[in-house]
Design a protein that fits this description.
The protein is an all-alpha fold. The protein is 66% helix and 0% strand.
């Protein structure tokens, strides 16, 4: 069994994760029915705006997030304001609508009493997800090879496996007495869990594959598709947000950046650009 930790509690928890993956489908705890329904209908490329509006309009909080996201700088470069749900749905791409649904679901999850003990780390994971989304959006736009809409959604869900593990771990507080062992579990399991979650939401295979592989993508010398490279670079930008000068050390050695035609100076500029977009995304997707 991959990543089995050196303690009994950790081993039992890993067995539970393995059982959940094998049993399938994997789902975030407390995932609202309306959010799941949005993921399902958006799997149909021919779904009508009327259908989407009818589904999301039944949940005012989700509808409000969609309107807010449609006004965020990351997906609304023209800054033309949107005030109604139908216009917001028509403006946003499917992947941005998926992002709004996931943010709504995580917001509901964070309010649940059974996750009060992990509220702080859960909030930090979500802030990391929104930061990743903003970075991926600007990198995707700059590359010219990936829709910013797709890059934003992929960035937002890149850490969804970590969120799942944390919510499951809340029922096993002894796991947190050994932070090192817990991080080994996260490291070894989050990518496969993210794949299972995204597949259960009927997410496009290219996004699923990018989320599953982006952390090891820079070891690959083959050209491949652009989205995993976008996520790899976005992760670097996010990790150096407070120390952009370190990008001049990390970027030149990155195969992913080279494949996207990005140098260190460009990445520093993109990081600065994502700062303003991050503020609007935090407001739209939840702090």
């Amino acid at each position: 069994m991959a990543g089995a930790p050196p303690n009994a509690v950790g081993f039992q928890f890993v067995c539970e994760l393995a059982e959940a993956l094998s049993a399938g489908p994997v789902e975030l705890p407390s995932f609202p029915e309306v959010a799941l329904r949005v993921q399902e209908v958006l799997a149909d490329d021919a779904v009508s705006t009327d259908t989407v509006v009818r589904i999301v309009g039944a949940e005012p909080m989700l509808a409000a997030r969609i309107v807010s996201l449609a006004n965020a700088a990351a997906v609304n470069p023209s800054s033309t304001p949107v005030s109604d749900l139908r216009t917001a749905v028509a403006r946003l791409g499917f992947d941005s609508l998926r992002a709004a649904a996931v943010s709504f679901a995580v917001a509901q999850l964070r309010r649940r009493e059974q996750y009060r003990s992990v509220e702080q780390p859960l909030t930090l994971l979500w802030l990391d997800a929104v930061t990743m989304a903003a970075s991926a959006c600007v990198v995707g736009r700059r590359s010219g090879r990936i829709s910013p809409d797709t890059a934003l959604f992929a960035g937002l869900v890149a850490g969804v496996g970590r969120i799942y593990i944390l919510t499951r771990a809340a029922a096993h507080p002894a796991l947190f007495t050994d932070p090192g062992a817990y991080q080994i579990i996260v490291r070894d399991w989050h990518a496969n869990i993210a794949r299972a979650l995204l597949e259960s939401w009927h997410v496009a295979e290219d996004i699923v594959e990018a989320v599953h592989t982006y952390e090891t993508r820079d070891q690959d010398t083959r050209p491949g598709t652009a989205l995993p490279d976008v996520l790899t670079v976005a992760a670097l930008l996010g990790s150096h947000r407070d120390a952009p000068e370190l990008l001049f050390e990390g970027v030149p050695a990155m195969r992913a950046a080279k494949r996207l035609g990005l140098d260190a100076a460009t990445c520093v500029a993109l990081q600065a650009q994502s700062t303003s977009e991050l503020a609007t995304l935090r407001a739209a997707l939840g702090r």
